[in-house]
Amino acid sequence: MPIQSMPELIEECLKDIYSAEKQLSKALPKLAKAAQNPRLKEAITNHLAETNEQIKRLEQVCKQMGIKPSGMLCKGMQGIVEECNEHLKEAKPSPIADAMIIGLAQKNEHYEICGYGTVIEYMKAAGQTEGIELLQQNMAEEEKTDKLLSELAESEINRLAVESPMPAPAKKASSSSGKAKSASGASKSKASSDKSPRGKVSVR
Ligand code: FE
Ligand code: FE
Question: Alpha carbon of 47 to those of 29, 52, 147: distances in Å?
Fold first, then answer.
């Protein structure tokens, strides 16, 4: 049924966020478990506790407005959670995985920030002031988490990921290091010996 009024649109948004939060309360433990960095693990675990409180606040807001929050599936969050699960399935604890987990977690947070921001503005416009404060509280926690994740990425995790000793993809080695054994007078023959694109794969 199409949405035909602002109250209906607000209701739709609140149900959508409620579903998103519910899905996140199940997804965040997996992200926290997969994280290796203790600060990242802690940040996600703390946000899980906040998320559970946010669900209660949403239930309170919906109750005040006479809305039943359950019964809808937020497909946007479903997609993001599926993406998280997909990546985590193959991830082993490592600085690279930590960097990836931050990116995934921030997708969640940005989605939530967008959802709260939108419904708060709808409610303001509709003169529906009751409940706004609780929603703003939720949004502030999402923003704080997003900021903390950025801070963790920028202060250490991205650097650790870059420095991490994971096997690098095969690169074409420079002629000086790659042909050390046959360095004597080999420069002329370089072009022919390097013809195969796989010729230098074993060079580290
Ligand atoms: Fe949330
Ligand atoms: Fe969140």
Answer: 10, 9, 12
What is the three-class DSSP state of 68? coil
pLDDT at 171: 64
Q: How far apart, in whole angstroms, are the C-alpha atoms of residue 24 and residue 169?
A: 34
* Ligand 1 center to 140 CA (angstroms): 10
Residue 130 CA to ligand 2 center (angstroms) comes to 22
Q: Considering every ligand atom, which ligand is closest to the CA of 115?
A: 1
Going from the Cα of 95 to the center of ligand 2, the distance in angstroms, rounded, reads 22
Q: Which ligand ends up closest to the CA of 51?
A: 1
pLDDT digits (tens, 9 = 90+) for 102-122: 999 999 999 999 999 999 999
CA of 26 relative to ligand 1 center, distance in Å: 12
| pTM, 2 dp | 0.80
Please tell me the distance between residue 156's alpha carbon and the centre of ligand 2 in angstroms: 22
Rounded CA separation 109/105 (Å) = 6
Yes or no: say if 27 and 81 are a contact pair by the CB < 8 Å rule: yes
Give me 170's structure tokens. Answer: 């095969």
H/E segment holding residue 158: helix 158-163
d(C-alpha 112, C-alpha 45), whole Å:
17
